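Notebook entry, structure prediction.
Reason for the run: the old model in the group folder had no record of what sequence produced it. Starting over properly, with the input documented here first.
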Amino acid sequence: MRRRRAAIVYAVADDRPMHGLNTTPLIDVMLVLLVMTIMSIPMMTHQVRIQIPQGPPPASQQPIVHPLRLEASGAIMLDGSPVTLQELPPRLSAINREPTGILQLSASGDARYEIYAELLAVVKRAGIERLNLAGNEGFVASLDR
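New structure, fully documented this time:
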């Protein structure tokens, strides 16, 4: 025997227009705008202070570049002469005291990363502020092997 489903009929009492304003969409839009504002305020107030030079340096203040090179054998060369990691900090401090001294760090693509990381740690502990990383193309060639 089949059961019949009862048909539900909704009856509207009268056909007059509603007098109330539907504020739900307005509240939803306002909440979305509030959340977006709260999330964007920290990004607008975040500042990184850096000193940017104004104009070209005077001819008397041309930078003095001191090349620091890590060879594939692990040898470290500063200004063309070999140094050890223990001899490096006093020489780097002297470079840091020069007003126009720049340390240019480069490494062979076949150099061991552990030695390179130690070298970077020594440079950081020496307080070098003007550092130029050069010769990174050698690492790309060693990655292709």
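Summary: Residues 64-143 form a domain with the Nucleotidyltransferase; domain 5 fold (CATH 3.30.420.270).
The old model has been moved to the deprecated folder.
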